[in-house]
Amino acid sequence: LPLFARGGWPCRVRSGPTSATVSGRGPGGDGRPVAAVFVHIFCQGEPSMKKLFVCAVLAAVLAAVPAFAKKTYVNGIDPNYPPFAYVDEKTGQPAGFDVDSMTWIAKHMGFEVTHKPLAWDGIIPALLAKQIDMVDSGMSITPERAKMVQFSNPYWTVSRVFLVPADSKLTPKDILTQKVKLGVQRGTSEANAIKKEQEEKGYAFELRFYDSAPLAVEDLLNGRIQAALMDELPADDAIAHGRAVKKAGTHGVPDEFGVAMRKDDKELHKLVNEGYKKLMADPYWKELQKKYLNK
Known about the structure:
Layout: E1 2-4, E2 10-15, E3 20-24, E4 30-33, H1 34-42, H2 49-64, E5 72-77, E6 80-81, E7 85-87, E8 94-95, H3 97-109, E9 112-117, H4 123-128, E10 134-135, H5 143-146, E11 150-151, E12 156-158, E13 160-165, H6 172-177, E14 181-185, H7 189-201, E15 206-210, H8 213-222, E16 227-231, H9 232-240, E17 245-250, E18 255-257, E19 260-261, H10 266-280, H11 283-293
Parallel strand pairs: 5-9, 5-10, 14-15, 14-16
Antiparallel strand pairs: 1-2, 2-3, 3-4, 6-7, 7-8, 10-19, 11-19, 12-18, 13-16, 13-17
């Protein structure tokens, strides 16, 4: 929409979802909101009661404009936890069941979200330091974590499994009682649980820690470890992608996944819970399961 600023300089209005700005040559073509330019132009010259009143009203409207902008939240994700969260090799963009779920929720709950890949063992410290606002990335709800953060209502349940080479004859009992090298992703609930269990029961296996479940699978195939403990869906993902591995059996109790947030962020907590409730009632929830979880 063309108009003329002071001095006859041509400029153009760029409209957006919540405001408009002025661009072009000359005064007023500096990217300021249109309302700000109008206030600046109108309020020059000799003052009058009418002009002062109009200027005050325009200033109040201008001050209120930012309140209509959508709030943006940052979701921290594990960049290598398929199918829940990962960085797509083709696009270089975050993807996965949890990423698409939160993107849908943001759209339907009226906020913006960006997904930030982070090292898993540092993701809760990043949340507490306000580098991110939430963690929607296959995070298990545990008593230890609940002391530091608040969780949304659970949105998924997953079992833990032992993964072994396709030609292995190891059973879960063998893995626990024999001197095998057992891989696990550091900072996960299964890593903490199996370490505690070993200390309490004196199991003979040797724990090896990895930055991600796929890295443990690589060492499993290379013979550096004989078994790996992980959530079932990442194990299923490895098998679905043709890795020569199989599930030897389950171990422990199933995990419930929830979205982690800071304890004082009540507004976001409400948005996420309401958003997941809407998502689970929408046909898109089944589409996501079919796309990522083969459900």
